[in-house]
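Handout, section 4.2: multi-component inputs.
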Amino acid sequence: MRASALFAIPVILGLAVAAASAETPKDVRGLYLLTDYPAVSVRPGTTSTLSLRLQNYGLAPERFALSVEGVPQGWVATLLGGGQPVAAAMPAADANVPLQLRLDVPANAGLGTHNLTVSAAGQGNRVELPIAVTLAKELPAKLAVEATLPALRGTPKSSFDYSLKIKNDSGRNLTASFAAEAPRNFETSFTEAYGTQQLSSIPIEAGQSKEIKLKVRPPSTIDAGKYPISVAVSAEDATAKTALSLEVVGQPQLTISGRDGLVSGRAEAGAQSNIPVVVANTGSAPADNVELSATAPSGWKVTFEPKTIDMIAPGKDAEVQAQITPTAKSLAGDYMTTIRASSRGESATTQFRVAVSTSTAWGMAGAGIIGAALLLMVGAVSRFGRR
Amino acid sequence: MRREGSPWQGLSGVFLKELADHLSSVRMRVLEWLVVLTAVAALYGAISAIRETTQEDPFVLLKLFTVSQGKLPSFVAILGFLIPLMAIGLGFDAVNGEHNRRTLSRILAQPIYRDALLAGKFLAGLATIAISLLCLWLLVVGLGVFMLGVPPSGEEIARSLVFLVFALAYAGVWLALAMLYSILFRSPATAALTSLGTWLLLAVLWPMLAPALAEAIAPPNVRLQILGLPTLATLEWTQALMRISPSHLFGEVVLALLSPSTRSLGPVFMDQLQGAVGGAPLAFADSLAVAWPQAVALVAGMIVLFAAGYVAFQRQEVRA
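Output:
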């Protein structure tokens, strides 16, 4: 009992709301044929549909025959109800029947305004609705594109993100596709404003705007300078363009190798040997104050002559001598030594393979021992040799 | 008393006669067959083991010498065992055999010095072993090329030939020792037993005795022992004592020459290996430098043992 009583309250509230809405047109009585826009513009050669409704305010239900008059030659006007062609409608008291007027306008119809009359005739009761149909070229689609920050600046390694706002200024929903024109080898991609999904087109409702992001990555070996990028947005027959600019600031890029690209060298355990190291700047700005350092096996001494290079112009290289001294206890064989060049954040490393050979002093000592044995032999021969 | 003429007079006569005797003797034939058969068996094992590996190796030929399969030891291990046997077989009755046949005084009645006689006998034994080793080497290289289809590189040939030279020095040590015993003992049986006893002691027993002796000389650190680590002093003593044995020296020479990635024959510390490129082969000269002390010990040992035999022979009465 208690549960059903609680349940009854929302039902009563709902009824009250329905009664309030039905009560509003209290002082209006009669039958009306209604449409939201009684004067429309239609493009020749298209089919357009107008929404109508037959509204009954406070009359008893009655059958109304429907007809359309004043239809120009060649046009086809059909009244539809519930998706079917209908000839009559019967609205209940204080209710309406939705109807649609479908107009098939031939492509060769002359421009100008035509007046059509839709009428609903009952017994002694007749309502009419004049509709002015103007044949006109429809408003062309219109798009606008705008970049919030049209000029960006960065290094060849940075990624340039332009945020673009595309506005649909035309009267209908459009699917705008976009393309970016950038210098050769530039990588461009469109993504959602907050997302990583790449896009090639985006649907925009009439009068609305959407934001997308254009990501541009210049080739890493590009020279410093300003590069133009143009973005074209198109939908149906509308296009919009905007020009962006990308400024690349030069950056040094270092590479290390040996002379003639050789990254190996020889060294003797406990002795200093020189390995030529070539530091090249393949970037687009001069590298200054290039410092050289090395990571070598424990106990090794690696110094550079000179220790720092003042400046390497772009496209140029400089040679330094790496003075490598393996420990005296090093075993013979190959070792890896990492040589590093750094200049204000930009650095390069290369591994050099150093073949260590041991000192030949012990080899000489060994030969000396064999010599001593032979001397002993010779001594024995001369001492004990018999006639 | 001044010597007249060259002490080497008659050397070539003794050398050629001894060589001919060695090469036609039944003893030598038996030894050669023993060596060849075991070597071919080891080689076959090595070849079938190498065929199963697919990884690239710039020193396939050298693997023929060092790879062992199953229960069969590797080719060099067999050589390390059989070379002393061959050398002792050739040298144990070199001088006392002549004594017993009463031919020594007859030979020395010829214009041949004792120097030439002893040197000729020694060189003939060495030459016999050299011929056998060279044949074995050719057998290995030939079978390797035939069954693996990989032509040997210049460095492989150089390494294996230098190995052959040191194997000859190893044989020379045992030959000189056997000849020393044949000079010292009148009975060939005593000389043979003493030689074989020395060989057994140094080749088989010494590897077991040396660590025990080293522990007695330099007791291992208890704390390191608990951690399962060796004590450096004990390790060094063990190695020093082991190197008294020519077999061990020969083994180290083989390791350095035929396994090109061997960097050291002694204990290696971790900090010495930091940054090292693992498995990278050493240059031939570096490998030779690693093996050099052992090789020198073998060559010098051979010369010293021969000199000792020479001195003993010169002071001996031969007319009895």
